[in-house]
Amino acid sequence: MASNPRQDQDFIRPVRRVLVGVLVTTLVLTFLVWRIDSPRVEQFRMAVIDRVVPSFDWAMRPVARAVAMAENFRSYARIIEQNQELRRELQQMRAWREAALQLEQRNAQLLDLNQVRLDPQLTHVTGVVMADSGSPFRKSVLLNVGARDGVQDGWAVMDGLGLAGRIAGVGNRTSRVVLLNDTTSALPVVIQPSGQRAMLVGDTSAFPLMEFIESPDEVRPGDRVISSDDGGVFPAGLLVGEVVQTRDRRLRVRIAADYGRLEFLRVLRSQPRERITDTGGLVAPLRSLGDLVDEDVAEDADLAPDPVPDPAPELPGDG
User: Fold this and answer.
1) 228, 234 in Cβ contact below 8 A?
2) Would you report the helix, strand and coil content of the chain in percent, each value rounded to 5?
3) Taking the domains of the chain in order of start, what are their residue ranges?
4) Domain 123-269: top CATH class
5) Residue 229 CB: number of other CB atoms within 10 A?
6) Under a CB-based contact definition with an 8 Å cutoff, are residues 235 and 119 in contact?
7) What digits encode the pLDDT tens for the residues 91-135?
8) Claim: this prediction has a pTM higher than 0.90
């Protein structure tokens, strides 16, 4: 038997009205009980809370967990923000650390430049390395000093540790430095303590080759190598490096200059050496061979003994 929708509606409406009225009345009474300020009502409220609230723990657990999850999410968001902030600060600290290391390196190089002991006759001008114009086949750098600073071709160039190269090309404001390991570099050197002379020839490697050694058997790895004034190109006594021996038993030089950190270079103003052209007062002037022969003959005649006269012969009848 099919139910009549209209009869169902007529039955639901009164029930809904009764439920709504009961709910409203309950809420109003609850509000009034919670708002009345009386000791007896307060005891009643506490009794109701003690009776009802513990039985609602199961209903409060999801709410408590949701609140805890919300707090954890907020804490996680704060941790992410703090982490990002710490990363930014760490990046800034790395930049400051790099700047501090560069300043420390520059300070050490400048101190080394001031502590190097050179010939007092050698003056210098210090320049900053502008660019590395080298290649796999050429090893050179550019300095920010040139002809306006009095720089000339062929002058020796040093860093804070040792000889780095020579000037090869001078402009008004810049100059080019050919390093010792360039293929066009050939430097006469002296090996200490043996005093052997050799030629340091660049081959684009980190350890230039030594050739034309007078007595290779007297050279040992670790010997000190300094520049020689042979040919009048470089001043004598500038530190070049130390001797090393490679696997092929060839003698090379570990350059004292730090080519990986060339920032400041010092150009030595080489003064031309004084040439002695006269023979001096203690040396006799040159004379012709004929004059020397005549003098030798005269000296031999002076040193010869005087001839002794022969005795007179006896005549008969003398007596």
Assistant:
1) yes
2) 40, 20, 35
3) 123-269
4) mainly beta
5) 15
6) yes
7) 788 778 777 777 776 776 676 666 555 555 667 788 888 877 656
8) no
